[in-house]
Amino acid sequence: MTVRIIGAPTDYGQDRRGVDMGPSAIRYAGLSDALASAGVDAVDAGDLTVPRAEERDPDARQPSQGNAKFLEEIEGVTTALSGDVADSVAAGETPLVLGGDHSVAIGSLRGSARDAEIGAVWFDAHGDYNTPTTSPSGNVHGMPLSAALGHAEWDGVDWANAPGLREENVAYVGLRALDDSEREAIRASEMTAYTMSDIDERGVTDVVEAALSVARDGVDGVHVSLDMDWLDPTIAPGVGTPVRGGVTYREAHHAMELVAEADALRSMEVVEVNPVLDESNETASLATELVASAFGKRIL
């Protein structure tokens, strides 16, 4: 396997500055060595060119776009990233996108789903299924799934939709923080949602295996989205939206080991590492370890 590393250093999708340094922090934490220890070849394509958020107007949007911020900039990142991801897959590589905030997932999904049917497993504390009118904050890192799945509010926004991704092939793992409107929308959808309560009751093995079964049913491959706030903030402090009660260190590693064993990984992203909020680059280091497990590293 050849993994192509693509950095997407954005902080357009949330209010906490610093997450744009996530790709650098993950690389500095030893990503290349971690992938080598998993037995895969890594090619680093560098970072997308992303203008600084401070130089842009977050409110430059059309009235029909609700209160979503930085949509023009996110469109540019999505277009560039989706092209790079699609080209990587076409070359027989597995793209690994380093965020940046979770809005980069729109580009990852769109690129991975170009000319293919894909599923997605969403390891996250949050649902990321808000829309430009339901989002309390207007931050697009809480909207990537609604955008990629073509929610009605994104009609006509051609740069956001991932045509090869369907709700019935999307599975959440570890939800524990949802807005009221988002909770209702997820319940009404055809997505499968496993909360932290499900992990408590059933165990991480059962839940992740079930999620992978949902995601890979009848598709060409699976996209894995790993938001570092999925983990408990006691072990992953460097995230912008921490939520207590997340998965443990070993639960997270075992989940990624199950991803590798499924042998269906088409593309992956790891997002929301914010070194400004981190402690001794701990969260970035953990991200590299989990990526290695997802690509096949084992204890023995």
UniProtKB/TrEMBL annotation:
Entries under PROSITE patterns matching the protein: ARGINASE_1, ARGINASE_2
UniProt record, GO biological process: arginine metabolic process; urea cycle
Catalytic activity: L-arginine + H2O = urea + L-ornithine
Stored Pfam families: Arginase
GO molecular function: arginase activity; manganese ion binding
E.C. code: 3.5.3.1
Pathway where this protein functions: Nitrogen metabolism; urea cycle; L-ornithine and urea from L-arginine: step 1/1
Cofactor requirements of the protein: Mn(2+)
Residues that coordinate or bind Mn(2+) 2: D124, H126
CDD domains: Arginase
Any one of the GO CC terms: cytoplasm
Cofactor note (record): Binds 2 manganese ions per subunit.
Family: Belongs to the arginase family.
Protein name stated in the entry: Arginase
Source species of the chain: Halobaculum saliterrae
Organismal lineage: Archaea, Methanobacteriati, Methanobacteriota, Stenosarchaea group, Halobacteria
Encoding gene per record: rocF
